[in-house]
Design goal:
Chain lengths: ~650, ~190, ~300
């Protein structure tokens, strides 16, 4: 005889406020199989758990129903409780009488109590059919993959490597560094970005545990936590990395000039190039789309000039597959394309630039050698307008969210203009100044107070060219009067947006993203660096707008999570997986394409029937891949597939309990 | 400066704000986040006593009377520049239009000349089915307002065949009169 | 190609040359314009400020008549166009509105007949290539700023062109052989009816546009609205004397420029009715033409 114990939780007043818990406990006593039933204020508390354990012993209970909150919250708690009470963890069933009952029916206690009773009735019916299940373990591959080599990716890789694990960084550009490499100085301290970034880049390059895989992209991801099989496409560099010494002769002699992406198209690079002087690795690639040899079949100058014969036009893309235990995604952000703003000239005014253009204009190795000159005619601008929230906080034309970093970098830019051009005037059009962060507000105060930038509260409505000036029209909303500036240059603080291929990567790796294509954390407060997919972690601006300190902090957090995983030899797996009843499986294969985790396959078996040996196909489940979603069980026409812990029999028992 | 009694203003203004939202076909002034882009682009702002943004603010705080008595709502040229550019997709021009209609009902007309112009215009439409521009010119003079500046232009216009002396009328004007009557039947104030 | 033609009140008085040139050009392009019999004023510039329902009902009667014929409406005047379009959009958007409007106008209008701006019809239905093929006298060397005004391309949800930097008129004048000049005041408001009733507000607005046009180096302005024409042409003198400047910038309806390029006599298009004398420009064009022919 099975002996079920029923425990009804009040959850303080969360449940008891709407449900008569004592009555539910009382009702449960009459359900078939129930040997004991009681209620308590907080079942999850220490005394609550003790109560369960004691009841198991005193009443010789062999399966338990807890009616409380969602199993998402406390199923692990009560499973542990059963185990320490000497029962198999899977002989527990939870009835959710909070989210499914008291919270949604706060005003009708009688009906809520009836509903809670029925939920418990169903749980009792199911638990009677539950089977003890055993967890198994899978080995963990002790190698991590970091996708994206910006500051977040570099930091995460360094932390994992320093903990003693092997890390591969896959970066799609020819060099690591990300946006931080393009930035001149960093707020709030105004230290040189390259000076603090390059040591980290070098450290990553020289670290015995880190492999840089640059100019490469993720092609495919299979497997699951602990064992991801990742295919990486190493794009053909056309330069043999083992021979190239990075002397750079080829880059000087290459006849083809291409606008440099790194310099925001404000100056040229060659077809064989490294994106910037401190690039790592400091070995060039050939941009085949623009290379004269690849487009016309003639040239081969770099091949001739290279002293080590490193140039190799015959290289092809290479696909390599590697197994990883954990993945850190750190693919960063892109900038909003302000050409949707007709009122700001649809991007056609040369002297209306973005903040990142500005970073290059003040950088000593940038197109103007660090002298601020406007792009149209190279003149030093005297009146410079900054416009914040361009594409941010603008549902009509851009994104609803705040990009978080632009208030501070605009203050930085304003300061730098005032510092570098003594007779300049700086006008910052803003809606709010958002400067929470250590030393941030003090920095902003200095911008207005010490450096004399004029902050004007209002969104700019129109920019147009008049002669060689840009007329900027706004409202000073503090005075309530329209204002106009005759500017020489306008800098737009354009929104931080997700990478254009963000969604594609997320689908490939298998985790979720939000409506703006930023990657979704598992919990906005309590699991900010995890994704919903076990073993995949997030770092940096790919999860949402972030500045460098925040990106670095998140990177270290993601690294700690990854290390936590990699430090174990093996990990337990959930036994709630699908299983095949081979006797009735028709081998039709309908289930195979249905499984989102590629856990199903067909195999050939031999059996004896009517004295003869025959072979036939049946489905088989890879329990390492199966996530227990149940999709296959409904697809199977012969009902040969069953999900353990949610078998057809168990579910029907619940239905019968409610309906019969 | 006079202080605003917010508690009172909000209590009184809620109903009016609901009326504005209703009358304008669902435009919600509460969406406005006071960025001023509307006012910065408004071609008439230079002549207004309150910027369009300030009108939105008055509505948000329930200071309806002040909005209704402003010159701004009459000076708005209905050019739609503001509505086209508002990042919060507030149809400001529609709010201006709505406030003018409510103001007229309540007898607050801060810009008499502009109002009379529109009245004359519509009278002409009702009477003749079409607008008769010379009639507008004369009507203004008869009403004894400041002589119509364009009188100096009128002879030239006549010469060029651009002003008709007699009203353009449509034959079956009964229909247009009926439209006016039907609108009045439904509570329209025209 | 056949459309229900709605000239609107202005086109029989202050905007008479817009009507003349529209009819001539349409004929030359093979576009049939069926004038809506007994059309009524759409209430533009006043009705919508007085009563929402009236503003929707007045144009609805004209639309209803066009709908009976199964025709879309071609509307030269930008103000009439936007009011009529508003009615079409509202009626289409809700059955209730359709019912109310039909009751008020005592005719049936379902939203079938669409309001189309004449510029849209010429540029997008007839097409720039077909227009270009019919050009006899290309407007060589004529620098034109296109002034769309505030009403023609707003609100964007009605739009057939961009609300901030529209292109259709620029492309059209280019197809006529002229040189379109880019400027930032394409859709700036000319003050509409304010210039009549409140000139101290209207004139500075007009002045700004004229000054910008002058600054751009254009020879003339092209427009698509009789109210804009009135303000920029008839009041150019007033605005000039108020601000102590003389602009001498002829203003044309785009249809007049089309007519000239198609070889129609300027007087037949009404070009002689302008306040700012356009004969200098016509003469220059003729001279250039003469030179080409003799060459
Ligand atoms: C104008 C401007 C000024 C700024 N100034 C400051 C400042 O002064 N101080 C400050 O703290 N912050 C500043 N920031 C913010 C700073 O740039 C970011 O916080 C930082 O770059 C985020 O780092 P990240 O590594 O997350 O992303 P990124 O820097 O964007 O790096 C992402 C990397 O991933 C790579 N990648 C992308 N997709 C893939 C893929 N599919 N496969 C492989 N690799 C991929 C990219 O190529 C890139 O190398 C500024 C930002 C801007 C726009
Ligand atoms: S490819 Fe050759 S020439 Fe170019 S950097 Fe490398 S070693 Fe130097
Ligand atoms: S950080 Fe500042 S500038 Fe950037 S979107 Fe937010 S409020 Fe606007
Ligand atoms: S543009 Fe829109 S949000 Fe900004 S002040 Fe005007 S109404 Fe408000
Ligand atoms: S619609 Fe009215 S308030 Fe809006 S920009 Fe035009 S004139 Fe100004």
């Amino acid at each position: 005889m099975k002996r079920v114990g029923v425990f009804i939780c009040h959850c303080g007043s969360n449940i008891a406020g709407a449900v008569d818990c004592e009555k539910v406990a009382e009702n449960a006593k009459s359900f078939p199989g129930v040997a004991f039933s009681t209620d308590y204020k907080y079942m999850c508390s220490e005394p609550g758990q003790e109560l369960i354990k004691k009841a198991i012993k005193d009443h010789k209970l062999d399966r338990i129903v807890v009616a409380s909150c969602s199993p998402r919250m406390h199923e692990p708690t009560f499973r542990r409780c059963l185990e320490s009470g000497g029962l198999n963890a899977y002989l527990l069933e939870m009835a959710n009488i909070r989210e499914h009952c008291s919270w949604v029916h706060p005003d009708d206690k009688e009906k809520a109590t009836w509903k809670a009773t029925e939920l418990v009735r169903m749980a009792v019916a199911k638990v009677l059919k539950n089977e003890p299940l055993q967890r198994s373990t899978i080995p963990i591959t002790k190698r991590a993959l970091v996708i994206g080599g910006g500051i977040a990716g570099i930091q995460a890789a360094l932390d994992i490597a320093n903990a003693g694990h092997i890390v591969d960084i896959v970066e799609k550009e020819p060099s690591i560094g990300g946006k931080m490499a393009q930035i001149d100085k960093t707020f709030p301290t105004l230290d040189c970005s390259a000076c603090i970034l390059t040591p980290k880049m070098v450290e990553a390059a020289n670290h015995p545990n880190i492999n840089l895989i640059t100019y490469s992209e993720i092609e495919n991801v299979e497997g699951y936590v602990g064992n991801f099989d990742v295919t990486i496409r190493k794009k053909a560099r056309s330069v043999d990395m083992t021979l190239c010494t990075g002397c750079g002769t080829c880059m000087q002699k290459c006849p083809t000039k291409v606008p440099s992406e790194f310099e925001m198209l404000m100056t040229d690079r060659r077809a064989i190039y490294t994106p910037f002087p401190q690039a790592i690795p400091n070995k060039p690639v050939i941009d085949r789309k623009n290379c004269r040899y690849f487009t016309t079949g003639k040239c081969r100058v770099c091949e001739k000039i290279c002293p080590t014969k490193a140039v190799d036009y015959t290289q092809e893309d290479e696909l390599v597959t590697q197994r990883y235990g954990a993945i850190v995604v750190a693919t960063g952000f892109d900038l909003f394309d302000h050409s949707v703003y007709g009122e700001y000239g649809y991007g056609k005014y040369k002297d209306v630039i973005t903040g990142l253009h500005f970073e290059r204009l003040i950088n000593a190795s940038g197109p103007t050698m660090g002298k601020i000159k406007r792009p149209s005619d190279g003149k030093v601008p005297k009146d410079v307008v900054f416009i914040k929230c361009v594409g941010s906080r603008d549902e009509a034309k851009g994104k609803a969210y705040c990009s978080k970093t632009c208030c501070m970098y605009t203050a930085k830019h304003a300061t730098l203009v005032r510092e570098k051009i003594k007779d300049s005037n700086v006008y910052v059009f803003y809606m709010d100044v958002r400067t929470p962060g250590k030393g941030y507000d003090e920095f902003y105060t200095r911008t207005t107070d010490q450096f004399g930038a004029k902050y004007i509260r209002g969104r700019v409505s129109k920019i147009y060219e008049k002669g060689d000036k840009l007329i900027v029209r706004g409202e000073d909303t503090l005075l309530g009067r329209p204002v106009e500036v005759e500017a020489d240059m306008v800098v737009l603080a354009t929104a931080m947006v997700a990478q254009p291929d963000a969604a594609k990567l997320a689908q490939m790796v298998g985790f979720s993203y939000d409506q703006d294509n930023f990657y979704t954390e598992a919990h906005p407060k309590l699991a900010p660096v995890e994704t919903h997919t076990a073993g995949v972690f997030l770092a940096g601006a790919c999860q949402g707008p972030k500045d460098i300190p925040e990106s670095v902090a998140q990177a270290s957090a993601a690294a700690a999570k990854a290390c936590g995983l990699l430090s174990k030899e093996e990990m337990p797996t959930e036994p709630i997986v699908s299983c095949v009843n081979e006797a009735i499986c028709a081998g039709c294969g309908m289930c195979v394409p249905v499984c989102p985790y590629k856990a199903l396959d067909l195999k050939v078996i031999q059996e004896r029937a009517h004295g003869k040996t025959i072979t036939r196909k049946v489905a088989t489940v890879n329990s390492g891949l199966c996530q227990g979603c149940g999709a296959c069980t409904v697809a199977c026409r012969s009902a040969a597939l069953n999900l353990k812990h949610f078998t057809n029999e168990q579910i029907l028992a619940e239905v019968d309990a409610l309906c019969l | 400066m006079e202080k605003i009694e917010l508690t009172k203003a909000l209590a009184q203004g809620q109903q009016m704000l609901a009326e504005v939202t209703h009358e304008s076909g669902g435009v919600r002034a509460s969406k406005c986040y006071q960025c001023g882009k509307c006012s910065a682009g408004c071609p008439v702002a230079f002549a207004m006593d309150k910027t369009p943004r300030e009108i939105m603010r008055l509505l948000q705080l329930g200071l309806m009377e002040e909005a209704l008595k402003s010159h701004t709502i009459w000076l708005c040229a209905s050019c739609d520049t503001c509505s086209t550019r508002c990042p919060r997709e507030v149809d400001i021009a529609k709010v201006m239009e709505t406030l003018r209609i409510i103001a007229k009902k309540k007898g607050y007309v801060a810009e008499k000349k502009l109002d009379q112009f529109h009245d004359l215009f519509l009278k002409s439409v009702e009477r003749n089915g079409r607008v008769y521009e010379m009639g507008l010119v004369l009507g203004r003079n008869i009403l004894g307002m400041q002589p119509f500046k364009d009188v100096e232009l009128s002879p030239a216009m006549l010469l060029k065949g651009k002003l008709a002396l007699l009203p353009h009328t449509i034959k079956d004007n009964g229909e247009v009169k009926k439209i006016f009557a039907n609108v009045r039947k439904r509570g329209g104030k025209v | 190609m056949k459309y229900a033609y709605y000239p609107g009140c202005s086109l029989s008085s202050t905007g008479i040359e817009y009507d003349m040139s529209t009819r001539k050009v349409a004929k030359a392009l093979g576009v049939e314009l069926w004038e809506i019999p007994e059309w009524n004023c759409c209430g533009a510039s006043s009705a919508h400020l007085t009563d929402h329902l009236l503003a929707l009902a007045l144009p609805a009667r004209n639309l209803a008549i066009a709908e009976e014929q199964g025709l879309d409406m071609a509307i030269p005047c930008a103000a009439c166009y936007v009011r009529t379009k508003a009615t079409e959009v509202e009626v289409k958007s809700s059955e209730e509105m359709q019912k109310t409007i039909s009751e008020v106008i005592e005719r049936k209008y379902t939203g079938q007949s669409r309001a189309r701006a004449l510029l849209d019809v010429f540029v997008n239905d007839v097409g720039l290539d077909s227009i270009n093929a019919l050009v006899h006298k290309p407007l060589k060397g004529l620098k034109v700023v296109s002034y769309y005004g505030c009403l023609l391309v707003r609100p964007p949800k009605y739009g057939f062109d961009d609300p901030e930097d529209p292109q259709s008129m620029d492309k059209l004048v280019e197809a006529l052989g002229a040189t379109p000049v880019d400027w930032a005041f394409k859709t700036e408001c000319c003050s509409g009816a304010h210039a009549i009733a409140k000139s101290e507000v209207g004139l500075p607005m007009i002045e700004k546009i004229l000054a910008a046009a002058k600054e751009s180096g254009a020879d003339c302005i092209a427009t698509a609205c009789p109210l804009c024409m009135c303000n920029l042409d008839m009041r150019q003198g007033q605005a000039g004397s108020k601000f102590g400047r003389s602009y001498n910038l002829p203003v044309f309806y785009f249809t007049e420029l089309m007519g000239i390029a198609l070889g129609i006599k300027p007087e037949e298009l009404g070009v002689n009715k302008h306040f700012v004398d356009a004969s200098g420009i016509i003469k220059k064009l003729n001279e250039a033409e003469g030179r080409r022919e003799t060459a």
